[in-house]
Amino acid sequence: MKPTRLALHLIAAYALLALTNFAHADSTSKRILFLGDSLTAGYGIDQREAYPALIGAKLKASGLDYDVSPAGLSGETSAGGLRRVGWVMQKPADILVLALGANDGLRGIKLSDTKKNLQGIIDFAKKKNPDIHIVIAGMQMPPNLGEAYTSEFREMYPSLAHENEATLIPFLLEGVAGDPELNIADGIHPNPAGHEIVAETVWKALEPLLK
User: Fold this and answer.
1) How many distinct structural domains can be found in the chain?
2) Does the UniProt entry include the keyword Acetylation (predicted)?
3) Within-domain flag for 11
4) Tens-digit pLDDT profile for residues 139-152
5) Would you name the residues annotated as active-site residues?
6) For residue 178, what is the domain's CATH number?
7) How far is CA 64 from CA 55, 67, 133, 202, 211, in A?
8) Is 92 among the domain residues?
9) Tens digit of pLDDT for each residue in 157-167?
């Protein structure tokens, strides 16, 4: 049977992460894991221009000894993230940047299920490393999904951060969403200039945890 495009993306993503883990298997560096969807994967651009890679460059420039493990997968939901967290965390992380949930919202998935899945990912990460720092990247939904749903979705992230004593990024796409000059042609995913702004937003949340 000919592999589907999604299967090929999965194979490529897992292979990339496996190579990353192998390359740093004997490293004493601390590890930052970015678990997310197409925004984290750098959909539509070179992965070297995506925000996790830009964070890696900032770490190197700052002389900070951290390995960056990007685990973004286009189309990923919170349920998908929960299914693969055991695989991507075979090697424990010191910081987890959790950037999932947007595809749940766009699909109208019940938010109680989304929150439960995200909590499951956090619980697994803490079990692997009780001292791990969790960074939760919040997202927002377009108003056409209804005021009640968009409001509940927006508040889900601060609630998770509060309940888990995690660092909150209120909106991952702050200053980028809706700006055609900062997004690729689909109007949803950041272009390289947009990812530079996303990287700055993430860096502000990460920097205090690195010292």
Assistant:
1) 1
2) no
3) no
4) 999 888 889 999 99
5) 38, 186, 189
6) 3.40.50.1110
7) 11, 9, 16, 16, 9
8) yes
9) 999 999 999 99
